Amino acid sequence: MTELAHIRNFSIVAHIDHGKSTLADRLIQLTGTVAERDMKDQLLDAMDIERERGITIKANTVRIDYPARDGHTYVLNLIDTPGHVDFSYEVSRSMQAVEGSLLVVDASQGVEAQTLANVYTAIEADHEIIPVLNKVDLPAADTERVKAQIEDVIGIDASDAIEISAKSGLGIPDVLEAIVNRLPPPQGERDAPLKAMLVDSWYDTYLGVVVLIRVMDGVIRKGDRIRMMQTGAIHNIDKLAVLKPAMLDTPELGPGEIGIFTASIKQVRDTRVGDTITHEKKPCDKPLPGFKPSVPVVFCGLFPVDTNDFEALRTAIEKLALNDASFSYEMETSAALGFGFRCGFLGLLHLEVIRDRLEREYGIDLITTAPSVVYHIHMKDGTVLELHNPADMPDMVNVAHVEEPRIKATILVPDDFLGDVLKLCQDRRGIQLSLTVAGARAMVEYDLPLNEVVFDFYDRLKSVTKGYASFDYEITGYREDNLVKMQILVNDEPVDALAMMVHRDRAESRGRQMCEKLKELIPRHMFKIPIQAAIGGRVVARETLSAMRKDVTAKCYGGDVSRKKKLLDKQKAGKKKMRQFGKVEIPQAAFINALKMDE
Amino acid sequence: MNALLQANGAAEGDWREAGFGLYLHWPFCAAKCPYCDFNSHVSGNVDQARWRAAYRREITRAAELTEGRILGSVYFGGGTPSLMAPELVADILETVRRSWRCTNDLEVTLEANPGSVEAGRFRGYRAAGVNRVSIGVQALNDADLARLGRLHSVAEARAALDLAIETFERVSFDLIYARQGQDEAAWRRELDEALAIGTDHLSLYQLTIEPGTAFGARHAAGGLRGLPDDDTAAALYEVTQSLCAAAGRPAYEVSNHAAPGAESRHNLIYWNCGDYAGIGPGAHGRLTDDHGRRPTTAEPAPQRWLELVESNGSAMAFDRPLPAREQAEEYLMMSLRLRDGVDTARFERLAGAPLDPSAIARLEDLGLVETAPGRLTCTQHGRLLLNAVLRELLAD
Ligand SMILES: Nc1nc2c(ncn2[C@@H]2O[C@H](COP(=O)(O)OP(=O)(O)OP(=O)(O)O)[C@@H](O)[C@H]2O)c(=O)[nH]1
Ligand SMILES: C[S@@+](CC[C@H](N)C(=O)[O-])C[C@H]1O[C@@H](n2cnc3c(N)ncnc32)[C@H](O)[C@@H]1O
Ligand code: SF4
Ligand SMILES: [Mg+2]
Prior knowledge:
The structure holds 2 protein chains of 2 kinds. Chain A contains 14 helices and 33 strands. Chain A is an alpha+beta fold. Chain A has 5 domains: 4-182, Rossmann fold (3-Layer(aba) Sandwich), CATH 3.40.50; 195-279, Translation factors (Elongation Factor Tu (Ef-tu), domain 3); 298-369, Alpha-Beta Plaits, CATH 3.30.70.870; 390-481, Alpha-Beta Plaits (2-Layer Sandwich); 484-595, 2-Layer Sandwich (Alpha-Beta Plaits). The longest helix of chain A has 16 residues, at 561-576. Chain A is globular. The A-B interface holds A 525-527, 548-559, 561-562, 564-565, 568, 571-572, 575 and B 23, 77, 205-208, 230-231, 233-234, 237, 254-255, 267, 269-270, 276, 278, 282-286, 295, 326, 329-330, 333-334, 337, 363, 366, 368, 383-392, 394-396.
């Protein structure tokens, strides 16, 4: 139990890779929170996939005791957040639990799209913001330029930004002092009825569901009977702890404090982030406003390569979903691919992460179908359908109109590349909203269809700007457009898993691209194969994959028999990585790669 | 009796369908060719007496394991067997004759490189009992020979061929085609010249880029430009078929052409899935005994092979017997290379089940195979797609 005046709660926010997790490492290390021998780089990025990709996916909390220069020891609760746009939901809800933010900016790169996005979220959350210029050890660091940028582009005072190197440890003591001196302490009433915010929850193999809370008012103790105000569920607190970052049991948590409890909760789905926790008896009168739930925006089909793996896939998906409420799934059957699941994700990185985990942790080879967004299909009879899968598109004669999700995209880019970025956005049916140039950097905002961005927009953006652009987006709403379903026919048979929604005006060019791509991706067969794109019954593009002419081993004698047989076995195994459509075999990778546009 | 037992039982004497031969591997060459992935090594000093002793021991052991068999062919392959001293070849052949009963018309082939030094040994080989040579000519123009890393010139190759034709009863030579920059017209001219040399047997291989070779590395790095694409290679193959057939030496196997009766009997053992003993570093064999048909392998590194034979008495190891299904697969894989194709009854005996009639029907529709009572053969078009045909027939 700590006095409010000696608590500081803050999140560390930044554009991807600007050094949040590394800064967290230094804060943990300098305060001796973790024994030196247990330290490792990006300590909080504990998931395999985080360590492998060097990124943060889940926000992480640590409690630090800091003896400040004023003689008092402060409790600092730090939340390290992910930088990638797919996980911006993690950032915004983390911010609800704290009073301030360290805004980390890479001094060699300057303000980027997620820097901006995060600042706006922090301002909305009424945060005190401390700008921190990181990586000043790099020769390319230009602190003056970046400070000017922070002031010009973001519009916050950067005169007392702290210059640090999270890598070398330079400036870290100043960060700790600034946290104590510049961030406000939390507020709350110890004697008021319990009011705590459910910030996050996750599944632990040993403990079951672990719930992260921030106490606003009152005190929570081990053994208490609590009520979740939104779900109405009642639980007994089995365990109460703070995260250092290992769990350290504590008898109680009071106002301003952050910690975890367990209460024999079975599924992460039984908890709702943003929910208000209070005592069953003597509840608080008004719940907290709660968070907007995260909604999946990108959908795709996941099918086992080996149809026998369907049950294994079901089990794996259920297990993953236990721990990730932002990921949704429903069973799907495809004429071409058999049984699988249509899954919803926060974005493409989220999709990749889940797919990776399914393949690696559960050893299931997957076919991923074209990612799609959710369309609103307005039927002539007045009903509205949510279309998650283009293959399910109803007959156009019954459809009044189709709406698609739109986003507001913010792109920051050195002005040398501005022309390429504008062209890319224009090609993707974008409508320019604003364009500002500050120094040598431009910021553009575009209204874009989500569907044009979901797949490879980010890759394209990176490649046309040599990696110098940054990108952020938020969904703004739905709008009607001339959208149609395009079918792909291989050897005259429609392949449902390749069906997609396209804008009518671009159907021909998109169809041509798809056919050309598939022609490269499908291996030649013993016969020639027509590949067509069609809208309704009308073919809009066509290619022909010519028949294979040669596939024979020139030399095969006694010594070659075993080797040759192994080769044949390998080819036969390779065939298993293909799906049979009528007489044609399509490699699994083709389903995704067919969509990549090299413009 | 169930089908599998029946198949196993039938498999026991299966080798008799194609006879019995001996392969001897000589692992040394004067230089390593950049395309070659054979077990060949360049070595300054080879103690031929030590090798002679080792071959003797290994031959004696193989003969003990195949007692009662009648040997129909011996093949000296490499490497470059024409680097062997004629005395060594003579000694080996004496050991062979002492160890097995041989057919009256025992075929004894030796692979020879056309360098002048080797040509000088031809008479010695003849005296030792070699009655057929296969000469690695590879190309009939000096620029391409140089690109293939060959040490000989066209003139030397022609001289070696003349001498060989004079010396041996049977002469064959090898060419590698579908080379960099080789178009149809150029190959036609070269093949015409080759056919005019008049041997009754030719091996014509399309250049294969093998991983682990110098060409493999160059190709992977984007080098070796101008190699014909599959369509061009297919056209070159078709030219080869028609020119050779017109010249009376039609293809009897994917890459082998002969006047009727001049086929390589030894190689036919492989393609017909007979038994063969494999002796020498890295040599493979297939031997049938009471346990079934067993693949044999040998230590590939020459020095270690020698040491193994000297210390253990043998460097040959037996694998587990081939399951009936695999024997059947091998048979199909090898025999479909031949003009005469597969004996479907024999396949069925081995596999315990016939070939999939629907797969055959599909392939027939596509013009890739032809059927006759008891036989299935590839058409010329099908032979070029043999791997795809096999995948179709062996799909499970
Ligand atoms: N030179 C230098 N490199 C740094 C510094 N701080 C972080 N880095 C490096 O920058 C990279 C990204 O650091 P992280 O701490 O993982 O960045 P992050 O902001 O947590 O990234 P996300 O969580 O993926 O958004 C790593 O390779 C760090 O080693 C610094 O002060 N100097
Ligand atoms: C055992 S090899 C070599 C025999 C002998 N040492 C020589 O080089 O003349 C037998 C034949 O295989 C052929 N050959 C070897 N490597 C090849 C490749 N990568 N592609 C096509 N043919 C090849 C050559 O024609 C060669 O003559
Ligand atoms: S092609 Fe013949 S000479 Fe050349 S390395 Fe191979 S075996 Fe030796
Ligand atoms: Mg991080």
